[in-house]
Specification:
There is one protein chain. The protein has 332 residues and is of the alpha+beta class. It folds into 2 domains: 4-140 and 311-316, Diaminopimelate Epimerase, Chain A, domain 1, CATH 3.10.310; 145-307, Diaminopimelate Epimerase, Chain A, domain 1, CATH 3.10.310.10. It is 19% helix and 40% strand. The protein is built from 5 helices and 18 strands. The chain has helices at residues 31-41, 43-50, 89-101, 189-206, 253-265, and strands at residues 4-11, 14-21, 61-65, 74-79, 84-85, 111-118, 121-130, 133-140, 145-155, 159-167, 171-176, 220-226, 236-242, 246-247, 274-278, 284-295, 298-307, 309-317. It has an 18-stranded mixed beta sheet that branches. A hairpin with a 2-residue loop joins strand 6 and strand 7 (121-130). The chain starts with a strand and ends in a 15-residue tail after the last strand.
């Protein structure tokens, strides 16, 4: 196996492992076709990078691919413990800095635009630059919308619950954890994960999801447990559990987008208003509705999400022929 080279970053504590060499190049004419190819042909390499001993159950990765949109500066696939995602806001924030620091785009001060093609569509990151050094990043989402409010789910060992279903590049079930006697900022993370996993499992079985752009986007990615706050006077805490019980250490960029779309649908936030969201690490993202539009006949919004990412190093990964354990495993 050739060496796989990566750049290591984190956004609010959530890892971003960006592949820079040695990974199979996905085939396909569109980015969603490349995602399907990766799911069929690159699983061994995904497990190698995401799972132990090189990663862990909550690792997250980015695979740059060739864009098929002419105005994209770069295109990426997102990978995690269970497969390939359609959107990742924390990774987009990191990729903005990565593109500036690597010279992948012409650098402008005080702000450099980076157009990133994600499986869900084109996302524009705006990177603060001063003296040639990158800083905070904000990105403008794809059209986000509320698919349903107060949808009833029959959840195992819990009973019927009401969830909101929002799309921010991926679909999430969103629910206030307080109604279960849990505090997203203080309750044991294992209890939060178990509840969120049960809700996601119920949602995947009981919710009928639809996205007007492509059926590949119509799946429930995870559940976001919140403190029920609006993020107006103080940051609203949330914990996002996605994929296979994976816990986002950041406030979740696509999750903030979905939460803003849901609050806008409920008339709890107006265009231009800024809301703040905080994760278990204390990292804060801001969200702002910047545009109202329609998608497939449904009210939708564009949301700007802002946060900070940091570089943590670089790596070269190898695999010896007789190392069967080193091909990737997860405990639990």
């Amino acid at each position: 196996m050739p060496e796989i080279e990566t750049v290591e970053m984190h956004t609010g504590g959530e890892p971003v492992r960006i592949v820079t060499g040695g990974f199979a190049v996905p085939a396909g004419g569109t980015i969603l076709a490349k995602r399907r190819w990766a799911a069929e042909h690159a699983e061994k390499l995904r497990r190698l990078l995401m799972w132990e001993p090189r990663g862990h159950a909550d690792m997250y990765g980015v695979l740059p691919v060739e864009p098929d949109l002419p105005d994209a500066d770069l295109a990426v696939l997102f990978m995690h413990n269970a497969g390939w995602s359609t959107m990742c806001g924390h990774a987009v924030i990191a990729l903005g800095r990565f593109a500036v620091e690597r010279g992948l785009v012409p650098v402008r001060e005080p702000e450099t635009p980076v157009r990133i093609q994600c499986p869900c569509g084109l996302v524009e990151a705006l990177v603060e630059v001063e003296g040639g050094k990158s800083g905070a990043v904000r990105f403008r989402s794809v059209p986000a919308f509320a698919l349903g409010l107060d949808r009833v789910l029959e959840v195992e060992a819990v009973g019927p619950v009401l969830v909101d279903v929002g799309y921010g590049g991926a679909f999430y079930a969103v629910i206030d954890a307080g109604q279960f006697g849990l505090d997203v900022g203080r309750s044991p993370i294992g209890e939060l994960v178990e509840l969120a996993h049960r809700i996601t499992t119920a949602g995947r079985a009981q919710l009928e999801l639809h996205h007007p752009d492509d059926p590949d986007l119509a799946f429930l990615y995870g559940t976001i447990l919140t403190d029920g706050g609006s993020g107006e006077d103080a940051p609203s805490a949330n914990v996002c559990v996605f994929a296979e019980r994976e816990v986002d250490r950041s406030p979740t960029g696509s999750g903030v987008t979905a939460r803003m779309a849901l609050m806008h649908r409920r008339r709890q936030v107006q265009a231009g208003s800024i809301r703040r969201f905080v994760s278990r690490t204390g990292a804060v993202f801001t969200g702002q509705v910047v545009e109202e539009e329609r998608l497939g006949g449904r009210p939708a919004v564009r949301v700007e999400v802002a946060g900070r990412a940091h570089f943590t190093g670089a790596a070269r990964f190898t695999l010896e022929e007789d190392d069967t354990i080193g091909r990737g495993f997860l405990l639990g």
